[in-house]
Design a protein that fits this description.
The protein is of the alpha+beta class and 135 residues long. It has one helix and seven strands; from the N terminus they run H-E-E-E-E-E-E-E. 18% of the residues lie in helices and 56% in strands. Strands 1, 2, 3, 4, 5, 6 and 7 form a seven-stranded antiparallel sheet that branches. Strand 1 and strand 2 form a beta hairpin. The longest helix is centred in the N-terminal third of the chain and has 24 residues.
Length: 135
């Protein structure tokens, strides 16, 4: 009897582990779309074409030696939504906007250092392209 219970517990544990693994592997990341990401001091750029129905949040640490940045958008959205949020080294939000086809604007002033760039995609299809550069 104990052997059957142990076997059942092991089977249930393995099924649960496989379910977690399957969920982790289907997180809708940009990896299948081979994004090009440049993350250098004072210059961050992300580009991915042919993105199809992706829902994910991507977070990057970026070194900005200045207190402001210029954000340049060149994104084509066929479906879904985007949200780009940039936080300074103190964690204050200095920029928050949906990506657009053509836009070039500055962040508000913040604290120099390691900034956070967060891109949220919800059911997004299209081509992503944006850049943040020290101002």
């Amino acid at each position: 009897m104990n052997r059957r219970i142990s076997s059942l517990v092991l089977t249930v544990t393995m099924v649960a582990a496989l379910a977690v693994l399957a969920a982790a592997c289907s997180n809708n990341s940009l990896a299948p779309f081979q994004p090009e990401i440049t993350n250098a001091t004072d210059n961050f750029q992300l580009q991915a074409t042919g993105v199809g129905n992706v829902s994910t949040t991507l977070t990057y640490s970026w070194s900005n030696t200045g207190t402001r940045a210029t954000v340049n958008h060149s994104t084509t959205t066929a479906a879904g939504t985007t949200l780009l949020v940039i936080r300074d080294a103190a964690g204050a939000t200095v920029y928050s906007r949906a990506l657009s086809a053509s836009l070039n604007e500055a962040t508000t002033a913040g604290t120099a250092g390691t900034w956070t760039i967060q891109l949220t995609l919800t059911g997004y299809s299209g081509s992503l392209n944006f850049r943040a550069q020290r101002l």
